[in-house]
Write a structure and sequence with these properties.
It contains 9 helices and 2 strands; from the N terminus they run ααααααααββα. The chain is mainly α. Strands 1-2 form a two-stranded antiparallel ribbon. It starts with 13 loop residues before the first helix and ends in a 6-residue tail after the last helix.
Length: 244
Amino acid sequence: MTTPSPLSFPLPSYEKRRHTISNTLSPATVFVLPSVVAAARHQVLNPTSTTIMPDSEAQSIYRSCCHPQTGSVIPFPLRISWILPMNLFLTTLMMRAQHLQSGSGIVGSQLLNQTYNVLHYRALRNTDNVDSDAKVTASFVTAVAASCATSLRLSKVKSIGSAAPFLAVCVGTVANMTLMRSSEILEGVRVYTEDGRDMGKSRLAGATGVGVSILGRIMTAAPPMLLPQVGVEALKRSVPAYGR
């Protein structure tokens, strides 16, 4: 049975939640040296030990680079702080493939995106439940097939074409996360009180967590994948020469 993270604490206000998430996703933690991660991890897990850096800095590094339940160090590209740079790279590939109307490019970029998603979800999975390799493989294959089929199909629809990559990401995300984290919905996840007392498993908490994660992934993908297209279309309408 897992125990709550030493960083489990209430965040009652929006500002505190925003500040915590901002620090966790900070680009400053992307290329943190392994020795610094080890030092931050040791300081967080052993609060009575000698302090070698500010507690806020140690907690930020720990949240970004270590698993929230087990405390184990997460591989470089799968860390929380890598979400932004990796998704910018993958989004660029998907949008470029769509612009070129390249079938192989669309399939390749969607394959890379879902591969990263599966590895990322696997690295940060809830350890209360154990999922088999077969289940992970099935989730990956389903997500790749769904996202590729959606993107290839919708790219041929003129009124939707530019939004095809985003819609493919939405379909792939729903398929991927629902299958990969189905045990959290069916079996539940452990819930703890503020003082760390185990209250047992809750299926409602598990389903809520999966649903919020899916919504969050879709909402974060929307601005970079839709706003540029909206801007280009607006520019074409306001500057006729631009659309020629």
